[in-house]
Amino acid sequence: ELRVSLFAVELGTAYSVSEKRIRAVLNKALAPA
Known about the structure:
By secondary structure, the chain is mainly α. Helix content is 73%, strand content 0%.
């Protein structure tokens, strides 16, 4: 799912509604596991 989110970000967050979800996923990925 992370790859899909990154792909969406590269597209310039075509889905503005999913922007928050994408950021949440990115925060989880960047956060120390």
